[in-house]
Amino acid sequence: MLNLNFSDFLIENKLILENQKINNYQISGTRIEDVNIQECNFENSVFENIFEENSVFIEKCTFINCKFSDIFKGDDLLLVMMNNTFKNCVFENVSYNVNSGQSEVVDSEFSECIFRNIEIKGDLSFIDLTFRKSCVEFFCYEGNQILGNRFLDMNINNSVFRGALLDNRIERGIFRNVKLIGWNKDNIFIDCDTSGVIFNDVF
């Protein structure tokens, strides 16, 4: 696996990556003020110790067989991810803890992905996302809102979601030791095993 050199894409310490195809690269340890990635395709790549900048904007990108670990740790990071597709990806040991600005992950799809050891605290919302055939374990979310998402054929274990949980559709989900805490309204569960869920409307 090669290390990706960002030097060709830097403009005044800002990374602008557009219309690139990146396969089998290690992307790690780079400190850049701002990151803007649009309409890129990533395959078989590893993102590690990265995205700790002032702002990260990722739009209309595809990630296939990629791994993300130890990312999004910046103290004042503004994160916006829109219209992206993730397939067979692993998110592990991801931590986001920011209370300034309004970050969001919007209009994206995650298919056959694994989320493990995730901690999100602060101003981050998940809006209009689709999750398919994915596994979630040890996920702690204390953010703004989880709104209008679709969860299909999911396994969710040992996790806590605290915030506004609104207008989500969950089909064929299996839950084990899961807590949903906060404003829980207009969520639909279809053919789900919710015996492992604790609902609590109090923050």
Task: Provide key terms for this protein.
15-stranded mixed sheet; 203 residues; mainly beta
Structural write-up:
With 203 residues, the protein is mostly beta strands. Helices cover 0% and strands 66% of the residues. It has no helices and 24 strands. The strands form 2 sheets. It has a 15-stranded mixed beta sheet that branches. Strands 4-7-10-13-15-17-19-21-23 form a 9-stranded parallel beta sheet, with no helix packed on it. Strand 2 (10-11) and strand 3 (14-18) form a beta hairpin. It is globular and about 50 Å long. The N and C termini lie far apart (45 Å). The model has no long low-confidence stretch (mean pLDDT 90).
Helices and strands in order:
Layout: E1 2-3, E2 10-11, E3 14-18, E4 21-23, E5 25-28, E6 34-38, E7 41-43, E8 46-48, E9 55-59, E10 62-64, E11 67-69, E12 78-82, E13 85-87, E14 90-106, E15 109-111, E16 114-127, E17 130-132, E18 135-147, E19 150-152, E20 155-166, E21 169-171, E22 174-185, E23 188-190, E24 197-200
Parallel strand pairs: 1-5, 3-6, 4-7, 5-8, 6-9, 7-10, 8-11, 9-12, 10-13, 11-14, 12-14, 13-15, 14-16, 15-17, 16-18, 17-19, 18-20, 19-21, 20-22, 21-23, 22-24
Antiparallel strand pairs: 2-3
